[in-house]
Amino acid sequence: MSHETINLTLKIWRQPNAEVEGRFEEYKLEGVSTHASFLEMLDILNDELIEEGKEPVAFDHDCREGICGMCGMMINGQAHGPDNETTTCQLHMRRFQHNDKITIEPWRATAFPVIKDLVVDRSAFDRIITAGGYVSVNTGNAPDANTIPIPRKDQQKAMDAASCIGCGACVAACKNASAMLFTSAKVSQLALLPHGKSERGERVLKMVAKMDEEKFGSCTNTGECEAACPAGISLDNIARMNREYLKATLCSTES
Amino acid sequence: MAIAEPSISNILDSKIPDGPIEDKWDKCKFDLKLVNPSNKRKFNIIVVGTGLAGGAAAATLGELGYNVKSFCIQDSPRRAHSIAAQGGINAAKNYPNDGDSIWRLFYDTVKGGDFRSREANVYRLAQVANNIIDQCTAQGVPFAREYGGYLMNRSFGGAQVSRTFYCRGQTGQQLLLGAYQSLMRQVSAGKVNIYSRREMLDVIIIDGKARGIITRNLVTGEFETHIADAVVLATGGYGNAWYLSTNGNGSNVTAAWRCHKKGAFFANPCFTQIHPTCIPRSGDYQSKLTLMSESLRNDGRVWVPKRKDDNRPAKDIPDNERDYYLERRYPSFGNLAPRDIASRAAKLECDKGHGVNDTGQAVYLDFRDAIARDGEDVVRSKYGNLFHMYKKITGDDPYHVPMQIYPAVHYTMGGLWVDYHLQTTIPGLYALGEANFSDHGANRLGASALMQGLADGYFVIPYTIGDHLARHSFEKITEDHDACREALENAKGRVNKIMSIGGNRTPNQFHKELGGILWDYVGMERTKAGLETAIEKVQGLRSEFWEDLKIVGKNEELNQVLEKAGRVADYMEFAELIATDALNREESCGGHFRSEHQTADNEAMRHDDEFAYVAAWEFNGVGEKPSLHKEQLEFKNVPLATRSYK
Fold first, then answer.
1. Interior/surface letters A125-147, b for 16+ CB within 10 angstroms, e for the rest
2. Which of A149, A218, B227, B626 could form a disulfide with B617 if both were Cys (CB 3.0 to 4.6 A apart)?
3. From the list A3, A51, A66, which residue is nearest B506 (CB)?
4. Cβ-nearest to B60 among A92, A139, A150
5. Among the partner residues B60, B147, B249, nearest to A152 by beta-carbon distance
6. How many domains is chain B partitioned into structurally?
7. Which CATH number fits domain A5-105: 2.40.37.10, 3.20.20.80, 3.40.50.720, 3.10.20.30?
8. In this predicted structure, what is the pLDDT of residue B2?
């Protein structure tokens, strides 16, 4: 692994809090190793800013291995940057060139208000799950795990959908700021598994209603969400959710 | 540091029930006092942390009818670092029909922990593990399945049966989302309130009982007082004390440490797991080390070149010039030797000059033979996401060149001392999951952290906490109670002190330096002289910290520099305890390797006559000698023996 270093110009969205208007600021950063991750590059910038007595750039992050879903920013207009199926923390500086100018912005969506700089409030996602993204089984209720065999292809599809990390890139990438990919991933996972079947109708209706209430936009099948998704969640899930929704609406057993 | 004269403690009551080990948990459950269903709604419980232990506990306590406040430092409970666990979760279902049993899981775990865990706790863990698999399956966790639709298992280190259930390389994620969804269901039911982006800064103690916590709202900087009838801490481990670890950047010791300062004993802090298969470090900017799941050792073979400083590319080194040292030294377990053993073996090879990489601090994990045997597609289906992650980080493609790996700090077996009820030495304060010390002894086996977190959260605390609530009376408390005010002022005072230093060095720089000291002297190999040096250096660095720390911004906003500084301040105190504990333990066991205590072939040498005890430390003030309390360990069911994986 040979080390190279590059110099960068960073154009970063700075916004002290939700009440104040934000603006871009430019920073020069020199001698960044191409083996550093994108967030490590921001760490280097922040340590320099602190030493100069300036406010560092706030950004959300935690696991730094692409699974917690906490990090996320628009990098040159792309959610999580230029690599496919890659979170911001897993994006590495070898993807960039010497003297590149990189524009960094927060997720932009009405449902995700900015808290500070690149940090946004994604609690709307929690509320969508709270509306019905679960199986109603109390601890202690469960029968032996092998009681109900699950065809492997269903388990695999459920696992594909369950891989969503809840980062919000789908919303940020969508021109309508729709949360269909996120919501449909959970609806799909639970609809594909026998344990989730008894609540499937009610679940999809409640989750979709909550999604609308949280002011996420509509889906116009553009597919930007799928392209931006770091976990490879497929548009098939949206199709499946639409079928689930239709079925639940037409075949409602509610009296 | 000299230590106050220790003796077998009569303060520590482990509350292990009498009787045969198979019956202890049943007996305990029967003896526990119950809170009747309609009274449960009168009790308020605080659960700090939303990982597997905390999420499972909060959800289950909500289902039972208690009013639960659930706290996390992240923006959502779904982000807790349990989510990053890759490989799997153990349970002795014996679905593969290969001779597994609860007894064998119990035996393997006690032996794997190098006889430094509590037998009764481990047996209970093995007993309830099967319920965990059932529960998670019912929640919709998509565990791997055979073509017939039945559950599939794979092998993990330290076991000769296949008992690990998994969801590709994302098992922690799926189990955590299962717990999170159960938690959100209780939010929907009105039984749980979530407080995200909150950091616990102190515990409130009234009449000797934990009655609440102080938190800082990380968005507004507001200090908040939360009152309850019991407090459950599920705040994870302290691996980030070493700066570079596989932990998430936010994982920290602050909540546990602040409880320790209020009287909760800290047990075995020197028991730290250095995981053998992590991506080696590459530069000074590095902020974390990434784990490559132990499951890879099912198919990957670990080797180094036989010739020292052999610079040829791996593919040009013929088989007879490769040393598959784990297979050579441990023929019966081979590449699946337990973590402590595999880590030390890697270090030994690198120290002898056989390491690869620019730094010489790496060994190969090679899939060439597995790919030749099973084909690339089969390997991809088992480990695809891990290979993808490896390529992202290093730029190398492990389908064509072997992975390079090196040990890194991963998990901490030590933690707050708890009894069989998971209660700390502060009544009403419980510690779950990685935050406690109880089940893994001196080394944790793979796929048992998820098992323990969920066992504690779903199946232990829901029973034991009721006993505390039923046995005591709880006077009505308000925020203006003296103890609440004092805790609030304490938390505020610490933040104000940090804000007022006005020095030149950033919290990150201090953290990195502290981590360097711990890695050099309290890492994979420890010596008396090294540990004494570490203590001296930590004390020196701590003084510098309080004189030369630089903070920008203010308290009344989202201030990540301030958050970090508060956590580093606690590491500066805690690091001294880690080294003190390691100095006291004059033996080698599990992840704690004192080079003075080893066999002729470099294996760990325990001293059971002197050290078969839990070292529980009592806080006496920063820079003051802590008091050592010993809980003697008894091995009635798994006889003490030298651990061998040969």
1. bbbbbbbbbbbbbbbeebeebbe
2. B626
3. A51
4. A139
5. B147
6. 3
7. 3.10.20.30
8. 47
Q: State how far residue A129 is from chain B, nearest Cα, in angstroms.
A: 7
Categorize the per-residue pLDDT at B7 as very low, low, confident or very high, splitting at 50, 70 and 90: low
Which of A42, A65, A154 is most worth mutating to test chain B (most B CB atoms within 10 A of its CB)? Answer: A65
Return the CATH number at B336.
3.90.700.10
Phi, psi of B497, deg, nearest 5: -65, -45
| CA–CA dist A207, A199 (Å, integer) | 12
pLDDT digits (tens, 9 = 90+) for A211-246: 999 999 999 999 999 999 999 999 999 999 999 999
Question: From the candidates B40, B163, B184, B498, which should be mutated to test the interface with A, based on the most A CB atoms within 10 A?
Answer: B184
| Sequence spans of domains, chain A | 5-105, 122-250
CATH 1.25.40.10 for domain A122-250: no
**Does residue B344 sit in the same domain as residue B455?**
no
Contact B140 A65 (CB under 8 A): no
Q: Quick check: is B476 in a domain?
A: no
Examine the domain organization and report whether B440 and B544 are in the same domain.
no
Cα separation, B71 vs B65, in Å, equals 18
**B439 and B516 both lie in a single domain:** no
Q: What is the model's pLDDT at position B520?
A: 95
Residue with tokens 């996420």: A216
Does A23 have pLDDT greater than 90? yes
Same domain flag for B308 and B363 = yes
On chain B, the residues whose CB falls within 8 A of the CB of A134 are 139-140, 181-182, 184-185
With cut-offs at 50, 70 and 90, classify the pLDDT of residue A1: very low
Q: Where are the beta strands (DSSP E) in chain A?
A: 5-14, 23-33, 74-75, 78-79, 100-105, 114-116, 119-120
Residues in chain B with CB shorter than 8 Å from the CB of A47 are 506, 508-509
B215, B142: one domain: yes
Q: Which residue of B has its CA nearest to A166?
A: B78
- What CATH number should be reported for the domain holding residue B595? 1.20.58.100
| Contact residues, chain B, for A16 at CB < 8 Å | 557
Are the C-beta atoms of A130 and A195 separated by less than 8 Å? no
B327 and B339 inside one domain: yes
Q: For residue range A119-155, list pLDDT tens digits in order.
A: 999 999 999 999 999 999 999 999 999 999 999 999 9
Closest alpha carbon within chain A to B178? A134
Measured in angstroms, the CA of B192 and the nearest CA of chain A are apart by: 11
Residue B141 one-letter amino acid: V
Active-site residue, selected from the candidate residues B104, B116, B258, B339: B339
Residue among A16, A43, A132 whose CB faces B287 most closely: A43
- The stretch B198-205 carries a mean pLDDT of 98
**Least confident stretch, B8-17, B302-311, B493-502, B571-580:** B8-17
Query: Is B623 within the bounds of a domain?
Result: no
Range of the domain at B589: 482-611
Q: Are B128 and B454 contacting, i.e. CB atoms less than 8 angstroms apart?
A: no
Region A19-43: what's the mean pLDDT?
97
